[in-house]
Amino acid sequence: MKTFEFKQNDLKRGVPFAIAYFVVLIIACYLTFGGLFGMANALSNFGSAKLAAIVVSLAVLAPFIIILNLLMPKIKVELASNNLTISDKNNQKVVFYNEIFALQLNMSNLNRLDIMGQQNNLLGFILPQNNPEILAQVISEISNHVNFTKLKGSKKYFGKSIETSLYNRKI
User: Fold this and answer.
1) Are 89 and 75 in contact (CB under 8 A)?
2) β-pairing verdict for 160-169 and 102-105
3) Are 169 and 102 in contact (CB under 8 A)?
4) 62-71 and 11-33 helices cross at what angle (nearest 10)?
5) CB–CB of 162/154 below 8 Å?
6) Pairwise CA distance, residues 25 & 41, whole Å
C-alpha cells in the first residue's frame, strides 16, 4: 500500500475567500485613507515605488497567502491492492481499480488528475496545491493494476502550451 499526503487546491473555498479578502481590503483602505485620492496621495508620499511595492506585498499578499494555505484541505491518497482511497478530514471516497476506465491529466484544469468511470462520469480527482510530481506517481501506481493506452495532446493555459494526457483502459 502506498500513501500520499498533500494540500489540495479547492476553488470552492479559495475563490470566494479571495474576492471577500480583497473587497474588505479595498474598503478598509478607502475608509482609512479618505477615498481614492487619499490612497493615491499615501502611495505618492511613501517615497520610492519599489519600497511601496514591498510594503504592500508584505502587508497585503503575505496574510492572504498564509490564510489561503490554511483554508486548503489536506488530502490523503492511499493506493491499495484493489482500490484507491481519496480522503480528507470530512469525506472519504473509495474507487476500485475495476471501475476506472480513464485517467485525464491536465484536461479540465492544470495539474489535475481526473479519474473517470465507464460512462465518463467523474469518480474522483486529485489536484495538488504545490507538488504536481505526485500525479505521475499516482498514475504509475494505478497503471500497475490497470492496463492503459496513453494519448498525448496539448492545451493552452495562460498562453503557454501544456501537455495533456488521456489514459484509456485497454479492452
Assistant:
1) no
2) antiparallel
3) yes
4) 150
5) yes
6) 17
The 10s digit of each residue's pLDDT in 48-96 is 778 888 888 888 888 888 888 888 888 899 999 899 999 988 889 999 9
User: Can you tell me the distance from the alpha carbon of 8 to that of 112, in angstroms, rounded to the nearest whole number?
Assistant: 10
Closest CA to 102 of 116, 114, 82: 116
- Kindly report the backbone phi and psi dihedral angles of residue 146, in degrees, each rounded to the nearest multiple of 5, phi listed first: -130, 135
Asked whether 168 and 149 are in contact (CB, 8 A), the reply is yes
Residue type, 21: Y
Answer yes or no: are the C-beta atoms of 164 and 155 closer than 8 Å.
Answer: yes
**Residue ranges per structural domain of the chain:** 10-71, 74-169
What number of residues does the chain have?
A: 171
Q: Following DSSP, what letter does each residue of 76-103 receive, concatenated?
A: EEEE-SSEEEEE-SS-EEEEEGGG--EE
Is 88 within 8 Å of 20 (Cβ atoms)? no
Q: What angle do CA 160, 161, 163 make, to 5 degrees?
A: 140
Q: What is the pTM for the complete model shown?
A: 0.74
